[in-house]
C-alpha cells in the first residue's frame, strides 16, 4: 500500500506538469487532428505499471505496440530491463504517463514513439514538440537518467494491414531528422534504427515483419544486437548475461487457422529468446500476456508465454517452444477464447488434456499448475464475447478440476479468488468484463504466493 501511495503522490505532483503540457499541446489543435490516447488497453496497462514496484537501476523501454510486443528482459537476459510499451500509444499518451515511468529514477530510458501520431495525421511539428517535452520532463524529474531516443522504423505498404500507417515515409523521415537534431540540441543519444531495417526499395524489410508495421522475432534480435554492438544496452549491469541468439525462420509447422499475425509475431519472437534454467512459465491468452509477471514476481526466472487471442489449439501447437527450456513450473490458463468462438466445452477440455499430457511426456520434471478459466462480468462484457457465459466457464472449470485430479497435477481455483458473491468477475478487477486491471493481477499473484505455489 505504501508503494501505491508513493506512486499516487508522484502522479499528483509530477503529473501536474505533464498534464498541463499535454493540455497545452491539445487545446489549440483539437479540431484539426486526433490527440486522444485513452483506450481500454492503455488504461489497463498503465494501471498495472502504476502498481508494480520500483527497483534500482531500471532500464526502461518506452513506446507503443512495437515496444510492447518485445520481451526485453528475456532478450537482454537482465531483470532490470522493464517494458513500458503500450499498444496504440502516441506522444501525448507517453507524456501523460511519464510520472509512473520516472518514479523509479531509471538508469536508462530507450524510447520510440510517433508512428501512431503520423497515422492520426498529427503534424510533424507537433510530434517533435511533444518529443521535446518528453526529453525535458525526463531531465527535470530524473536528471541522472540516460536518455536514448530511437528513430521511428520504416513501414512496408505491400501488406494489407495498417493502411493508415502506410505511404507516410516522408513524414517518418522528417520526424527522424527532427529527432536527430533534438538529440544533438539536448545532448542525449540518438539511435538511428531506420536504415538498419529497410530493404533495397526503402521499405521495412519483409524478413523483419509480417504486417508491414510490427516486427517479427528476427527484427527484435536485430534491434537488440544493434544496441549491444553500440554498447548502449545492457551488458554494463551486473545482472545481465552475455547471451548470443541465432535467427531462424521456421514457423511452417503452425496451423494458420489460429495463427493470426499477432500469434505468429509472438511465437517467432519466443523462438529467438534464449532458454534458461528453472523457468517459471505463465502460458495462456491475452489475460496472461497482459500480466507483467517478471515484475509481479521479482527474483524468480518468470517468463510470459501469453498470446492475445490464443485458443487451446494454438497453445498445443506451440508447446515445443514453451517446453524447450524444460521449465521448472508451468502455470496454464486458457479456454475463454475457445468458448468465444463456439467450441464445445468438452472439446476444450479434451484439448487441455492433450496439452497437459504432452507437457508430461516432453518435460516430465515440469510441475504443472492448471488454473481455472476466469469468470466474466456480464454487466460490462463487450458484445464480442456474447457466446461467453459464466455457466459455460463453470462447466469447463468442473471438467478441468476433474482432469487435474485424473492426471495428478495441481488445480488452482483462481475463479473463486477473483469472483464476487454472484460468481461474476469482480467489477473492481476489470474494465471490460473479460480482462484484468492491476488489482486483479495483484490478488492473483498474492493468492499463488499464499498457497505456496510460487
UniProtKB/TrEMBL annotation:
Annotated InterPro entries: Ester_Hydrolysis_Enzymes, SGNH_hydro, SGNH_hydro_sf
Keyword field: Signal
GO molecular function ontology, one term from the record: phosphatidylcholine lysophospholipase activity
Transmembrane spans: none
Residue span(s) of domain SGNH hydrolase-type esterase: 62-220, 282-441
Signal peptide: 1-25
Name used for this protein in its record: Lysophospholipase L1-like esterase
Organism expressing this protein natively: Solitalea canadensis (strain ATCC 29591 / DSM 3403 / JCM 21819 / LMG 8368 / NBRC 15130 / NCIMB 12057 / USAM 9D)
Amino acid at each position: 500500500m505504501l508503494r501505491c501511495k508513493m506512486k499516487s503522490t508522484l502522479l499528483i505532483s509530477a503529473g501536474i506538469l505533464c498534464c498541463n503540457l499535454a493540455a497545452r499541446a491539445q487545446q489549440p489543435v483539437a479540431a484539426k487532428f486526433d490527440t486522444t490516447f485513452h483506450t481500454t488497453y492503455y488504461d489497463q496497462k498503465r494501471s498495472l505499471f502504476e502498481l508494480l514496484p520500483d527497483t534500482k537501476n531500471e532500464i526502461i523501454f518506452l513506446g507503443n505496440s512495437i515496444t510492447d510486443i518485445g520481451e526485453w528482459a528475456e532478450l537482454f537476459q537482465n531483470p532490470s530491463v522493464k517494458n513500458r510499451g503500450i499498444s496504440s500509444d502516441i506522444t501525448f499518451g507517453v507524456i501523460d504517463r511519464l510520472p509512473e515511468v520516472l518514479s523509479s529514477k531509471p538508469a536508462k530510458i530507450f524510447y520510440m514513439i510517433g508512428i501512431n501520431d503520423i497515422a492520426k495525421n498529427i503534424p510533424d511539428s507537433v510530434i517533435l514538440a511533444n518529443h521535446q517535452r518528453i526529453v525535458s520532463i525526463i531531465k527535470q524529474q530524473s536528471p541522472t537518467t540516460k536518455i536514448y531516443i530511437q528513430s521511428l522504423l520504416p513501414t512496408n505498404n505491400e501488406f494489407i494491414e495498417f493502411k493508415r500507417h502506410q505511404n507516410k515515409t516522408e513524414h517518418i523521415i522528417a520526424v527522424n531528422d527532427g529527432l536527430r537534431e533534438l538529440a544533438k540540441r539536448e545532448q542525449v543519444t540518438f539511435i538511428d534504427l531506420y536504415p538498419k531495417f529497410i530493404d533495397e526499395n526503402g521499405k521495412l524489410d519483409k524478413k523483419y515483419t509480417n504486417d508491414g508495421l510490427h516486427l517479427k522475432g528476427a527484427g527484435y534480435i536485430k534491434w537488440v544486437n544493434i544496441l549491444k554492438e553500440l554498447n548502449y544496452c545492457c551488458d554494463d549491469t551486473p545482472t545481465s548475461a552475455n547471451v548470443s541468439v541465432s535467427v531462424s525462420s521456421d514457423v511452417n509447422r503452425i496451423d494458420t487457422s489460429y495463427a493470426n499475425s499477432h500469434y505468429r509475431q509472438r511465437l517467432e519472437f519466443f523462438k529467438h529468446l534464449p532458454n534458461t534454467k528453472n523457468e517459471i512459465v505463465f502460458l495462456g491468452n491475452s489475460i496472461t500476456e497482459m500480466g507483467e509477471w517478471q515484475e509481479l514476481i521479482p527474483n524468480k526466472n518468470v517468463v510470459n508465454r501469453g498470446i492475445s487471442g490464443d485458443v487451446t489449439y494454438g497453445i498445443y501447437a506451440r508447446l515445443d517452444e514453451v517446453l524447450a527450456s524444460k521449465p521448472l513450473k508451468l502455470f496454464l490458463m486458457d479456454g475463454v477464447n475457445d468458448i468465444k468462438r463456439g467450441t464445445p466445452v468438452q472439446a476444450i477440455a479434451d484439448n487441455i488434456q492433450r496439452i497437459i499430457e504432452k507437457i508430461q511426456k516432453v518435460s516430465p520434471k515440469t510441475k504443472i499448475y492448471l488454473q481455472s478459466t476466469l469468470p466474466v462480468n456480464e454487466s460490462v462484457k463487450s458484445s464480442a464475447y456474447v457466446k461467453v457465459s459464466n455457466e459455460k466457464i463453470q462447466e469447463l472449470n468442473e471438467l478441468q478440476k476433474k482432469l487435474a485430479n485424473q492426471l495428478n497435477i495441481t488445480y488452482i481455483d483462481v475463479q473463486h479468488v477473483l469472483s464476487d458473491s454472484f460468481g461474476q468477475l469482480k467489477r473492481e478487477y476489470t474494465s471490460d468484463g473479460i480482462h484484468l486491471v492491476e488489482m486483479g493481477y495483484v490478488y492473483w499473484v498474492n493468492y499463488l504466493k499464499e498457497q505456496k505455489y510460487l
